[in-house]
Amino acid sequence: MTPTPETVGRFLLFKSDEQERQFRSGRLSPVLIAVLADAAEFALGHLGWALKLTEVWRSPGADKKLGGSGVHPAWRAVDIRTRDVAPEKVEALVRHVNDKWEYGNPLRPLLKVAYHKPHGTGPHIHLQVHPRTRAR
């Protein structure tokens, strides 16, 4: 069964009603929905962690101000809050996602689907996909 925002959204928390509305809008990349479904299932089932989305879509102007690469305005990225989450859980989720999913951009072969290095406005995992992202 292909994951949908409705099926995946039951296992997620949202920073605000706006993030939930954006998530359920039907505009997110289907590949991103699949990655997020996998991440949410792993986090809840193996780590006891319900993922909270803090950013879904952002305008190109806001993305530029934050030093973004354009994946949020293209509906190909989400951010997951990691504040108050044990570092080993964050590492485990990032490792799980990157072990299972390949970013797939031939022009940027070193990019990962998940990372959590300090960036943006607060601690979070950034999930991103490319049109060629595939399960390994």
Can you walk me through this structure?
The chain has 136 residues and is an alpha+beta fold. 37% of the residues lie in helices and 16% in strands. It contains 5 helices and 7 strands. The strands form 2 sheets. Strands 1-2-3-6-5 form a 5-stranded mixed sheet. Helix 3 (30-47) packs across helix 5. It is globular. The mean pLDDT is 93.
Strand-residue fraction? 15-25%
Largest sheet: 5 strands, mixed
Series of secondary-structure elements, N-terminal to C-terminal: HEHHEHEHEEEE
What global shape is seen?
globular
Rg computed from alpha carbons, rounded to a whole number of angstroms:
14 Å
**Overall pLDDT level:** 93
User: What percent of the residues sit in helical stretches (DSSP H or I)?
Assistant: 25-40%
Structural class: alpha+beta
Number of strands: 7
Low-confidence stretches: none
Name a few traits of the molecule.
136 residues; alpha+beta; 5-stranded mixed beta sheet; two-stranded antiparallel sheet; 5 helices; 7 strands; 16% strand; globular
